Amino acid sequence: MDALSSLEVGYDVPAATGARLEEIQTPALLIDLDAFERNLERMRRAAEAMGVRLRPHAKTHKSADIARLQIERGGACGISCQKVSEAEALVRGGIRDVLVANEVRDPVKLDRLARLALQARIIVCVDDAGALPDLSRAALQHGSTIEVLVEIDCGAGRCGTQPGEPARDLALRVAATPGLVFAGLQAYHGPAQHIVDPAERAAAIAGAVTLTERTVALLGEAGLSCGIVGGAGTGSFPLEGRSGVYNELQCGSYVFMDADYERIRAADGGRPGGFENALFVLTSVMSRPAPGRAVCDAGLKSLSTDSGLPRVFDREGVAYVGVSDEHGNLSDPGDTLRVNERVRLVPGHCDPTCNLHDWYVCIRDGRVETLWPVTARGKSW
Amino acid sequence: MDALSSLEVGYDVPAATGARLEEIQTPALLIDLDAFERNLERMRRAAEAMGVRLRPHAKTHKSADIARLQIERGGACGISCQKVSEAEALVRGGIRDVLVANEVRDPVKLDRLARLALQARIIVCVDDAGALPDLSRAALQHGSTIEVLVEIDCGAGRCGTQPGEPARDLALRVAATPGLVFAGLQAYHGPAQHIVDPAERAAAIAGAVTLTERTVALLGEAGLSCGIVGGAGTGSFPLEGRSGVYNELQCGSYVFMDADYERIRAADGGRPGGFENALFVLTSVMSRPAPGRAVCDAGLKSLSTDSGLPRVFDREGVAYVGVSDEHGNLSDPGDTLRVNERVRLVPGHCDPTCNLHDWYVCIRDGRVETLWPVTARGKSW
Predict the structure, then answer these.
(1) Which among A166, B128, B144, B253 would be 20 to 30 A from A138, CA to CA?
(2) Which helix (H) or strand (E) holds B148?
(3) What is the pLDDT of residue A272?
(4) Taking CB atoms and an 8 Å limit, are A127 and B287 in contact across chains?
(5) Considering only alpha carbons, which residue of chain A is nearest residue B283?
(6) Angle between the B107-116 and B132-142 helix axes, to the nearest 10 degrees?
């Protein structure tokens, strides 16, 4: 906490350690440490029971502190991220096994990635043989080795080469390229994570598993084995985990949860995994302009509404009904809210919400235990 | 540029000065300096022609550099912002006349505000007499004076007391409170800014003008004059500016523009003000996974989609059709986009988009001229 003690509460950080909820400058991003630790433990046990590795996605939290805890306490073999600048932040924060689960094509970014591979195991995705010359050149120039996953489009319709023969041919090219090591397949079905109907979600993942399984078999016939067959998210991981095809899960949101994944869990009978809300935006009531209505200080710049409005936590009868840039409109038919009262909001979508804040305010037993910086906040390049 | 030279291009900043567009690490937030300067000048002349003052809203840009230019070159008398932490960042950046166009109720925030008033003219809004004791106590404790606008709800349905008698009674209470100075009315109609139909928008503002005018008259009868009658935004300012009631305009988006305000301008026959696109998110093509489709590296964490998807700038036939956290799906029926090609996006909504980035990359004649930090990025408390 030494580095923190030089920071000014209010301007630099939203709270001092030891502060009570009512003393936190709002809006602030809260972690309930007990719930967070239970989520870590639940996922550790789930992966262990399924006999697969866990490589949690740091795109959710962008925090080197949380990534370290996922490895030290949460059973993770390494960390996933999406951007080179995130990988840089994680390696600077002490993480030594990082997958950039994404394509990287810019020559300057490839140079940064190859330098990083001198300090840590670095794995990256390709979906096009045109990527290989620049990637190889960067690795050779720095004398580093970059591991490569061939990304297949297993139904998500975003990046990725076609499964089957095109993926096999690309993998053979990777294996033959100096400075690169073929490490396996990236087979993530993003949209499936958010399908509320469990049967539809299972069908989407079954399709992904079939395409991935066939590609793994073709690679085997060509003499290539997949150290990593990676994918899955918080919405679908038991399906990939039990498939016998995937061996690394890349779930991110499980540490925090959000209102979107709650809807999916509810449809699923509380499964998968029974994760708890560990992340909140703490907001204060700043105006009571009319009966039945209150205005709070958390708007679009403190919570992302791409997956819907936040849910008010643990406060019967109060709802967040309208968002503007710096305000939230709360309906409060019983007029129970007082000015300056703190209210916890469960964000609609945790990942882009965390990316709005500089600090996690970590609470236990109603007090601030510590603050963690959002290490890679804004690192999108 | 001395402070910048110690920063690492790639990790710390997205570009060096002198760099070409193709060398900028993406996604990055671009300002076209020529267009930006023309926008400053257009608004300066518009306010001058209407005989009203300009107090531009820094919630749009959160930049002390831009606020300074608005005052030095753009004719502004001072700056508006929404949060105490923004005011702190602006005062640290040299701005000496700051309106927090919002209610502030937390005692710690009021203490911060009163301290700030020792260094700069500070104006804040109230909509409830319950706010006055804490505000007065903070001012008296620091020996500073805080100017107060009574905020009225002139149709926006967010904060604000009722116009007319309730506003007059609150103003009289303010005027009688030690440490505070009654400075006028805050009468901003936010939703009206985004009404596309010009007649409907004019009707909404006409309603606001009537309510404000009546309140000003009541205050006059009670012996209170309004130094400031403030409000207006980029969508409506000619209406408030010519009303004879408002004397300070708080427009923010005019310096940058965005896709939402473009729709409003188009419906308005290019008015109000003829402002140009000066703000872009620069993105790179990172994958060409299928014919007719490309994937770029700017998603939800680089542009806010609350007011719709971004518009592709100056690139015939290409459209941004789908967003995920770190990716954008581009439709490109002619297959014209190459991997690593830079594309400019006009964000749907400029304010929350700027709040996602750490740096403005300021370009002129195709080169990076300078970088400006987004001084108050994330300062929402």
Answers:
(1) A166
(2) strand B146-151
(3) 64
(4) yes
(5) A381
(6) 40
Q: What is the CATH number of domain B35-255?
A: 3.20.20.10
List pLDDT tens digits, range B113-141.
999 999 999 999 999 999 999 999 999 99
Residue identified by tokens 């005018």 is B213
Delimit the domains of chain A by residue range. Answer: 2-31+275-373, 34-255
Contact B68, B40 (CB under 8 A): no
Per-residue pLDDT of chain B (381 residues; tens, 9 = 90+): 456 677 888 889 999 999 999 999 999 999 999 999 999 999 999 999 999 999 999 999 999 999 999 999 999 999 999 999 999 999 999 999 999 999 999 999 999 999 999 999 999 999 999 999 999 999 999 999 999 999 999 999 999 999 999 999 999 999 999 999 999 999 999 999 999 999 999 999 999 999 999 999 999 999 999 999 999 999 999 999 999 999 999 999 999 999 999 888 888 776 667 899 999 999 999 999 999 999 999 999 999 999 999 999 999 999 999 999 999 999 999 999 999 999 999 999 999 999 999 999 999 999 999 999 999 999 999
Which residue, among A337, A308, A293, has the nearest Cα to B158 in the 3D structure? A293
Cut 0.80: pTM above it: yes
Rounded to whole angstroms, the Cα distance separating A82 from A99 reads 8
pLDDT of residue A274: 87
C-alpha A183/C-alpha B72 separation (Å) is 57
CATH class of the domain comprising A34-255 = alpha beta
* Residues making up chain A, counted from first to last: 381
Q: Is B108 exposed, middle or buried (0-12, 13-18, 19+ CB in 10 A)?
A: middle
DSSP string, B305-354: -TT-PPEEPS-TT-EEEEE-SS-EEEE-TT----TT-EEEEE-S-HHHHH
| Chain B residues within 8 A of A356 when measuring between CB atoms | 355-356, 378, 380
Which residue, among B114, B211, B132, has the nearest Cα to B171 in the 3D structure? B132
pLDDT per position as a tens digit, B186-214: 999 999 999 999 999 999 999 999 999 99
Cross-chain Cβ contact B380/A105 below 8 Å = no
**Alpha carbons within 13 A on the beta-carbon side of A58:** 39
Contacts A355 to B, Cβ<8 Å: 301, 356
Would the CB atoms of A106 and B284 count as touching at under 8 Å?
yes
**Residue A347 is which amino acid?**
P
Place of tokens 């550099």: B65
* Structure tokens, B225: 């004059």
Q: Which residue has the tokens 């968002």?
A: A323
CB contact under 8 A, B297 and A14: no
Following DSSP, what letter does each residue of A247-278 receive, concatenated?
Answer: -EE---GGGT--HHHHHHHHHTTTTTTT----
CATH of region B2-31+275-373, choose from 2.40.37.20, 3.30.200.20, 3.40.50.2000, 2.60.120.10: 2.40.37.20
Between B198-221 and B165-175, two packed helices, what is the crossing angle to 10 degrees? 50
Which whole-number Å values give the CA distances from B233 to A121, A299, B253, B255, in the listed order?
51, 19, 8, 12
Inter-chain CB proximity B25 and A286 less than 8 Å: no
A with B: how many residue pairs have Cβ under 8 Å apart? 185
Minimum-distance CB partner of B380 among A88, A127, A302: A302
Question: Which candidate from A105, A157, A295 shows the least CB-CB separation from B340?
Answer: A105
Distance CA B341, CA A312 (A): 43
Query: Of A87, A94, A97, nearest to A62 (Cα)?
Result: A87
Which residues does B207 contact at the CB level (< 8 Å), separation at least 6?
B154, B155
Query: Which of A161-175, A188-202, B65-79, B239-253 comes out lowest in average pLDDT?
Result: A188-202
Contact yes or no for B326 and A380 at CB 8 A? yes
